[in-house]
Specification:
Layout lengths: L2 H11 L11 E6 L7 H9 L4 E6 L7 H5 L2 E3 L20 E4 L3 E7 L2 E5 L13 E5 L1 H20 L8 E7 L4 H12 L22 E2 L4 H13 L4 E3 L16 E3 L4 H14 L5 E6 L2 H14 L3 E7 L4 H5 L2 H4 L8 E2 L7 H4 L5 H4 L3 E5 L7 H5 L5 H8 L41 H20 L21 H9 L2 E3 L5 E3 L9 E9 L5 E10 L9 E3 L26 E5 L8 E5 L4 E2 L9 E2 L4 E3 L6 E3 L1 E3 L6 H26 L4 H4 L3 H17 L9 H34 L13 H25 L3 E5 L6 E7 L3 H24 L9 H25 L3 H32 L6 H5 L4
Protein name: Extracellular calcium-sensing receptor-like
Organism: Gouania willdenowi
Membrane topology: Multi-pass membrane protein
Amino acid sequence: VSLHQQQLNWAYMSFPIKVKCPLQLFVIVVSYPDTGELFPLIRRAACLTTAEIVYISFRLVSYSLLCRWLVLYCSCKDDGSNCRLISASLSLPVLEKNGDIILGGLFSLHDTVVEPSLSFTAMPAPTQCTRFNFRTFRWMQTMIFAIEEINRDGTLLPNITLGYKIYDSCSTPHHALKAAMELLGNEKGREVAGFSGSVCHGTVPVVIGDGGSTQSLVVARILGVFHIPQVSYFSSCACLSDKNEFPAFLRTMPSDFFQVDALVQLVKHFGWTWVGVIAGDDAYGRGGANIFADELGACVALHEIIPKNRGYRFLFSPHSRTGLTGIQWLASEAWSTATVLSTPRKYHNILQGSMGFAIRHAEIPGLQTFLHHPFLVSFWEEMFQCSLAVPAEGQKNNSQGKPPCTGAEELKSITNIYSDVSQLRISYNVYKAVYAIIHALKAMRSCVKGKGPFLLQSCPDLQNVQPWQLLHYIKHVVYSTTIGDEIKFDENGDPVAMYDLVNWQFRGNEGIEFVIIGKFDETNTALNQKLQIQEQNILWNGNQTKVPLSVCSSICPPGTRKAIRPNFPICCHDCVVCAAGEISNQTDVIECERCLPEFWSNDERTACIPKQVEFLSFTDSMGITLLVISLFGSFSTCVVIVIFSCHRSTPIVRANNSELSFLLLISLTLCFLCSLTFIGQPSKWSCMLRHTAFGITFVLCISCILGKTIVVLIAFKATLPGSGVMKWFGPAQQKAIIILCTLVQAVICTVWLTVDPPSPHRLMPRESALVILLCDEGSYVAFGLVLGYIGLLACLCLFLAFLARKLPDNFNEARLITFSMLIFCAVWVAFVPAYISSPGKYSTVTEVFAILASSYGLLCCIFAPKCYIILLRPEKNTKKYLMTRTG
């Protein structure tokens, strides 16, 4: 048989009665796929003409719940008809007391439910709730205590007696829904007092409960349909603040939104950026964990949801406990003061030092004495592990294996979570919820006729309390408790969020003590004033006094920057040292700051310091080397001058105009010395001197060589008969050629210095730690003309020397000039690309090297052979030898 057919058969079973009056049917079902297909079947089975469907969404229930908890209410409109509960056989146990006004209550007195098997052929057996919860029972007792306290006092509601009707929701949504329906309806056969209109309101104008958010979600939807106010004492899910979905829901428990805000501020206060989130698989756990993860950002190490059927016993199981030590736990208010975790010593090494927010606690005078006088069969049997049932004849124990109670049991002799009133937090919420309702009823009673809040300024009738009217007054209630707390609800039905920050401190044999180390008060408008902590009173996990560090990555110190790890949350990063020339002087910077051009980063990359100034100095190794080479060249030239002076009368010195030889040697000396102007810190005068001195001395030198080359060439041409050329190239003409050539270079340099002279220049490359001091050429055209003119003279000299290379003579000076010019030209041709590509001071080094290399080339090629003959082969230093023609 298909599932739909089974549901149809059950629907027919549920309507054995025949009705004769028009009915309005309210069908409350658990929504699941294809629910709409059942509505026509239900209408036909009940012989109905109209129906209104109210959806109760709850995704954790099974398909069978639709068939099991299909509850139908009806109302007949003809005279003499009243509202009755159809499915009376499924009624739940109730704890009630009559009164003029009845307050409903929902408490999860048991933690689990044993579900009976479903055959779909007969009415299901009642469910059995197990695992009695002493803590929740204390909450229920607090509600009864508050009601009886108000009845005894009689000042708030004179001549009105309050009653109560309390159901056990058994910690499950479908039980909570069934209990809510019981509060809406009435027991079998009993007439409903105060019923009016087309909706059956029952006998309860307000409901206190339920505790869990999941149960309240279910209950709030159905109560909201009838505008019956619901005041929860422990449901904190932020989703319940939606008044469009839950118009009649209020609570004395702050919303998870505020608790999450407090937890986020706590995490940020201690600088924790790497946290894990563990929650139970229900509306409270999932909702709170999701809000926390969203508010905290992306820095969530893990986000785990644990099934509620396992709970803490699964999380702290023996297999898991070994890996949980050394962890700092942050507790939500659901377990921040839970003795079920703080009492067992096996959890102390894990949870000591835990910290969490707890609901404000308070003392309720007289409650402890009241708690010592309860009597509920299930409570008594669970507390003393005995049975009130008489065992069968011949047996010592009853069917459950418990011995019979003796009657000598006394609650005062037992200390447990039920009788412990040192941490009255949720009990205080229950207490406040009762008094909020009573103050609303008092306000209703104090309404002045003709000035009421309803239509035509009417006042409510306290003899016939309408839930929607009471809802209005509860929303606007404002009162102060005996300890000075102001109780009121905002537009979402939420109270002011105030939490105690508690620390689990291990006291040896005394166990865990909950020490208040701070508070969170949402009423403080200043953001930094909401959370107040006394850090000196905190004991962390392992009895440490130092704040634990919880980060995915350590703080990046100054001198580094954060580099995000791929595929990791934003708080997981690597610390990368700032690049050269960049600094960071703060922790956890995202980008390093680049230094100004004239500054460079220190070794720690924490500060910008002035760049080191670099130039070709007399103190560095390169400068010293060039200085030595230059001075040695000058010294060598002076030695040659001395040698030539001592042997000035010899033929080899007198040959080819000895005056030009001495002038050439002097110019070579100046060439060697002018290289010294390129060494040292550039200044305005040194920059102008180095280039002009270089240009003029080298032109002087090349002019002398040119003159000697012309003389050699003309001298041999003049030996031809009838030649008169030699008279045009005498000593005076040679001097004129030298002066003219040098004068041209002097004019170029003068114009250069006048128009755009060389000047010092600071080169500050971004990628270098140095400020390079150079001499900027100023006019590149003038610099090019200086070099070009030198090159022109050198090429002309080379050309003429090349023509005279084969002249017949034992000592052909033209050959020596040819070799010297080849070296000179090769050096300066190579100089141009090397100079352009050399960085910084090395361009200056290149220029000095070219000057020295070309000077040594001239000195060695022209004068070394002559010195060799003068000093080592004097026999060849004769006119006869020099004039001898070689083949």
